Every structure is written in C-alpha cells, then in structure tokens.
Amino acid sequence: MRLLINKIKLSLLKRTNMAQTTKDYDWWKAKGYENAPTVTFIFQSHNKSLQICHILKKLRQYQGKIEIIVIDDGSSFEHTRRLVRELTGANEFLVRSNDLFEVVTYDKAMRMANGQYVALMQDDDDFDDTTWIDEAVNLFRAHPKMAVLGGKWGSGMSFEDGHPRRVDKIEEGDFCFVACVCRAPMWFNKSLFDRYLHHNDFEFAPVQYDDDEICLRSWTLGLQVGRYEARFKSLSAGGMRVWNKSLLAGQTERNGRRLARLYADRMDEITHRVAESNDSLR
Hints:
By secondary structure, this protein is of the alpha/beta class. The protein has helices spanning 2-16, 25-29, 49-59, 77-86, 101-112, 131-142, 190-197, 210-220, 239-243, 245-263, 267-279; strands at 39-45, 66-72, 92-96, 117-121, 125-126, 146-150, 154-160, 163-170, 176-177, 180-181, 186-189, 224-227, 233-234.
C-alpha cells in the first residue's frame, strides 16, 4: 500500500511540475564538484562522529583540491544522522559499512577515491594545521616509486616462532624508507595502488596487520614505503580500540601467523631493498 501511495504522489508531482527542487546543469555546476582532486581523505568512524566533524572543519581549510570519504560503521543512527548533516560539500561522501571494519571498508573506499594521493585516517586523529598534507604530496612527487607513506611511525619487521616483531622502530626524525608503517595517516599513491597493489588482502579481514601486509607486499613488487612526521595527536582512544578489544586480540594471533607465512622467508630481501633505498637518499 505504501508503494502504491508513493507511486500516485510521484505521478502527481511529475504531471503538475510541483517538485520541490528543479535540478539543471547550472544547479549542479554551482555545487563545485571536483572530479580530479589532488588528495582523497578516507576516515573510519566507529561511533566517533563528533571527532570526525571536528577534523572536517580543519581539512576544509586546506587550499588544495580535496575529496573526503567518511565510512560509518553502522553501529548507531545517532552518529549516522550527525555525519549526514555535516557532509554537505560536493566532494564529501558518506559510506555505510555495516560493521565490516577496516580491511573491507578501506578497500571499498579506495576504489571510490579519485584523488592522486589517498590518506587513510582514523576517528581519533587530530592536527594543528594542514602542512602535513603538502609535505606528503611533495614526498610522493620526489619519490615516484613510493606507493605507501606513513606519518606516524615506521619500523623493520622480523618473525620469531611464526609471529611478527617490529624492530628498529622510528618515531621521529627526517623522512626515510622503512619496511612497514602504521596508520594513521597512511598515504597511498593511487596510480601505483591501482596498477600494482590492486586491493587489501581480504585474508586479513576484518582488521589487524593488513597495513603491515600491504607495506611488505609493496617492497616485493619493487615499490617503496616511506615514513615522515605528520605530527598528529590523538583526540581520544580510537573507536576500534574502544569497542572491539576481544576481536583485536584474536585477530592479532591469527593474522600475525598469516603475515609470517607470507613474508618470513622474504624479509632479508625486503630489508636489503629498504637499505638500498635509504642509501639513495644520502
């Protein structure tokens, strides 16, 4: 019955031209949609819409061409409604993910992104200004083989008893190449992602060690992974850490063993490539 009533209503609107909004090309053009942004920012939001709104205001101050995609994990309509009200720009999008978590949803959003460079973000990220954006873009342009760039910390990787161990962790200092970086921000050169990496490894779904996997995979494909200081600070504990502790514990065990099976035998090769890349900076 509701479908029938709606059909009659729409038919009357069409016949009487009483639709509330008349859309034409000028109406669309005035929205200012940018089809070729320089940067796409992708956020995971796990019941942290207030924090996302706080960061969106800062990103909009950036003078370059940007696109913003927010992934809402589907936990609470309170947060969905807030994000719908906030994301009003032509290049601002909201994706409902139904609790699929990071591996699947980041991958879906990466395919949607039009930016030359994509920054994966978390719902607890904060920063004082937007200089970290231009710094990242300039580093990508200076290193055309760099597929991944982390702004938090980077490290080497070793495997003992079938488990990964981060070694030689770097948390400050000048730009350098590293085996792995940690979100967030975790940047990608979109063209290299599309051409060589293609996707997140869904065997690591829903979460944990997928960021290490894609970094190690990049090195095995002849690409590079870099680390710089984005100078981020945390608004609070990330939503994944607050609501999914038991899941993360199990995923750490399972996916740690997966990572070891894939890359333990290739770490000498990867470590050598990292060292060669750093030598080229001197």
